[in-house]
Amino acid sequence: MTELIALAKQQNAEGRPLSFGSGGSGTTAHRGAEVLKQAAGINLVHIPYRGTSQAMTDVLTGRVDMMFAPIVVALPHVQSGAVRGLSITSPDRSPLLPEVPTVREAGLPAAETEVWIGLFAPARTPDTVIGTLYDGLVRALKLPPVREGFRKEGSDVVIDASPAAFSRFVDKEIAIWAKVVQQSGATIE
Does 80 have pLDDT greater than 90? Predict the structure, then answer.
């Protein structure tokens, strides 16, 4: 990661910024790269694709310099040596790629980002229905095959204490990402 940042700064000075691919504008990968740009003080040119696999193909062929990719997408390419894993953006190293350091270890704690998945329902859904859905979700997420399926994709299962706690988490995430988008100058395409 240190080498990447040095190269990005050199390329910027020469008027040839590095490019990064993503599965599209506004995706987690796009936003993760924007966080890296801000944390490292570098410029990178965003090349949006219509999917992560298309972006990875162009990284593999050298048409794009780099990308932020879900671990499940990057894993086979890192393992084969076709791409080099530079950093993990979560607070801890991944058990699937334990040799790849975190951005914090690379001296960029401000570049930490995590992907999360949540279950949403329409705003007017009755609390009793929300409670039933939540209870079923918790039971399902505690099943060993379900947890193992997530683990194989590089994910940890975290169950919030309540739907209200998840709602507060989402509100905080919206505020954080709104600031990142505003600072990046990104617009809807």
Answer: yes
CA distances from 184 to 32, 34, 36, 43 (A): 11, 6, 11, 10
- Which top CATH class is 2-114? alpha beta
SS3 per-residue string spanning 42-98: CCEEEEECCCHHHHHHHHHCCCCCEECCCHHHHHHHHHHCCCCCCCECCCCCCCCCC
For range 93-113, the mean pLDDT: 93
The residue ranking higher by pLDDT, 188 or 11, is 11
Q: Hey, where are the domains in the chain?
A: 2-114, 116-189
CB 66 within 8 A of CB 4: yes
3-state DSSP call for residue 112?
Answer: coil
How far is CA 73 from its chain centroid?
12
CA pair distance 20, 13, nearest whole angstrom: 18
- Mean per-residue pLDDT for 120-140? 95
